[in-house]
Design goal:
heterodimer; A: mainly alpha; Cytochrome Bc1 Complex, Chain D, domain 2; two-stranded antiparallel sheet; 11 helices; 8 strands; B: Cytochrome Bc1 Complex, Chain D, domain 2; 9 helices; 47% helix; globular
């Protein structure tokens, strides 16, 4: 609670600082924004979610009263370190390409006895979704600073990359927007927000590689799935289902593009 | 033991070959797979129905061009532009300019047409998301060109004069349907897709072209 309040204060101070800089110090707006972002890095509340996620991983929960410690995130049962920078990937047991969140749902079903359908239908920020986000935050943090290496060895993974690429460039909806409208060029911004170019390694690692992230503006931890969901909302598309193949295909496209770029999640955003 | 090893080596090798030797499906098959996945991956929410996923001919051609890096050929581009120019509706009463103050509010407003917006609200123009417009607003995007001094730079001193008619009409057409001039423009088709009303477009026109607008100071 005090963490949130102090962040709000920090936010307010940063906005005031921004204003002062722009008006009096003749600093460019982007300089001030960069300063504001640097100030935010000082204390990232995502650490609280990381701690919660680690607890949840080890805790015996669900109808089967089991922990997730036997969950295979792609690098073998129970291997967490480095798992996230190699996701999404193909899993033989489900015969599906899965991202971190959909894989967690599988493990929560098989190991703990939760119902996968119910988990997928739970709204963001409610019930078990909060726990999935916390788990994803901890798991991603265990890959912080590691280079992306999303696999393309399996046919299903290569197909998902191609589908993801098609979705990325797909213009539709009331405004004719695609992902590429905002994220297909270098050095562009929407209002004052810098837009990473998700078609290139640097931008894809910066963009895709930052989520889950803590959003100061609404005081929430946002998972990769929720980030994509809100992109599609602003794109004026219909509602993407949690862990749907379209969102996973986009994850493969961005993750493969990010190859060699370093993971920064869990990041802190405005 | 030795035999078991042989079998294992064979299995691994076969598995490896199978995964490498299978070619990727054709582009048309991948298009089809994408459509199947799209239909299963979304649901309608609020005013954002599943019909939003349907691509018209232009969107289909432009998406493919951008994805493959192969630009539309000249003939296709010209056809798209001619078709869209023809479909532009000119203002019913021949009045092209409204009130720049209301235009500024529309340019600032980014709401409308998302699943979380009420369908009944009037939509914003989202203009500042991509363009610099008036000098006072520092929070502008850079996806589109700067529109600061738009009318002044084009020598518009009296938007109602015959000399100004071509630029006034071009600007109307551009806002109504940018594909009238550039087949794969990134800009939304504000009139064509009923994002803004004619009345709202008039106000945005005034923001850009009225000599009294802060844009032209």
């Amino acid at each position: 609670m005090s963490q949130t309040t102090s962040l709000r204060n920090l936010f307010f101070c940063a906005v005031m600082a921004l204003f002062t800089h722009v008006v009096y110090a003749q600093k460019t707006a982007s300089d001030s924004i960069a300063e504001y972002r640097a100030m935010l890095q000082d204390g990232n509340p995502s650490e609280l979610f990381e701690a919660k996620g680690e607890d949840l991983w080890k805790q015996k929960r669900g109808p089967k009263n089991a922990s997730l410690e036997q969950c295979d995130l792609g690098k073998g049962q129970g291997v967490v370190k480095g798992a996230w920078v190699e996701l999404p990937r193909f899993f033989a047991d489900t015969a599906k390409v899965q991202d971190l969140e959909s894989r967690l749902v599988t493990c929560m079903q098989t190991l703990q006895g939760f119902d996968a359908q119910t988990l997928a239908k739970t709204p963001y920020g409610k019930g078990e979704q909060v726990n999935i986000t916390a788990l994803a935050t901890w798991i991603a943090s265990e890959s912080k600073g590691m280079p992306f290496n999303v696999p393309q060895a399996q046919m299903e993974e290569r197909k998902m990359y191609e589908v993801g690429k098609r979705l990325f460039f797909m213009r539709a909806g009331s405004h004719d927007f695609s992902c590429a409208t905002c994220h297909g060029q270098d050095d562009k911004r929407i209002r004052l927000q810098d837009l990473p170019n998700l078609t290139k390694a640097t931008g894809a690692a910066q963009g895709f590689g930052a989520w889950p992230a803590y959003r100061v503006s609404n005081g929430q931890m946002w998972s990769e799935q929720l980030r994509l969901n809100d992109c599609y909302r602003q794109q004026r598309f219909p509602y993407p289902l949690f862990a749907s193949d379209a969102t996973i295909a986009l994850g493969v496209y961005m993750g493969v593009n990010a190859k060699g770029g370093l993971a920064t999640a869990p990041a802190i955003k405005r | 033991m030795k035999r078991q090893n042989m079998v294992l080596v064979c299995l691994v090798a076969c598995g490896f070959l199978a995964s490498c030797a299978t070619p990727l499906p054709s582009s048309a098959e991948l298009d089809q797979l994408t459509q199947t996945i799209l239909a299963q991956s979304f649901r309608s929410e609020g005013q954002a129905g599943m019909d939003r996923l349907n691509q018209d001919e232009e969107n289909l051609a432009c998406s493919q061009a951008q994805r493959t890096g192969v630009e539309l050929d000249e003939k296709t581009s010209e056809e798209i532009q001619a078709r869209n120019l023809k479909a532009v509706q000119q203002p019913a009463d021949g009045k092209y300019l409204g009130d720049w103050k209301q235009g500024e509010l529309i340019a600032q407003d980014g709401r409308g047409k998302t699943w979380s917006d009420q369908a009944a609200i009037s939509n914003g123009g989202n203009c500042y998301n991509c363009h610099q417009i008036s000098k006072e607003e520092l929070s502008y995007g850079t996806l589109g060109p700067s529109l600061y001094n738009y009318g002044k730079l084009r020598g518009v001193t009296n938007p109602n004069s015959p000399e100004s008619k071509p630029i006034v009409q071009y600007t109307w057409n551009k806002i109504f349907n940018p594909r009238a001039y550039y087949a794969c423009s990134n800009m939304p088709r504000f009139g064509h897709k009923n994002i803004l009303t004619q009345e709202q477009i008039r106000h945005v026109m005034a923001l850009l072209l009225d000599p009294a607008s802060p844009v032209n100071q």
